[in-house]
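Table S2 (text version). Query chain:
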Amino acid sequence: MPSSVACGTLLLRLSLGVTMLAHGLYLKIMTFGLAGTMGYFERIGYPPALGAVVAFAETAAGIALILGVMVRPVSVLLLPILIGAFWQHAGNGWSFSAPRGGWEYPLLLVVLAVVQALLGTGALALEPVREKLRQFLPGWAV
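Corresponding structure-token output:
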């Protein structure tokens, strides 16, 4: 039976993973479309291609977190995206229900990613399986 810390870390990992998958795949790719997401990034002063990079990065990070693969590096690599979202919403007030969304939810995601990076994978992760495969497969395959 996994420890309470391992189970709590699993819940954190799954909730952060589902959130990232929802933001990347469902919201940015399927709802707004890449063209819409890229247009939004351009309107707020970023290169349009960054919108596509963020959409795919959030999607890939969500999948990796849900599966429990490379959890620490993925959590750290999410930080620039999440800090950028916080920065974008910082002037809109505290509550995310404010017009244009406030900063409280993006800041929470930043903190959750930092905690996930500190805690690691938790229970029911594929990372231990990947590590065991390393001895049987060439380096590029794992």
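Notes on Table S2: The radius of gyration is 17 Å. The chain has six helices and no strands.
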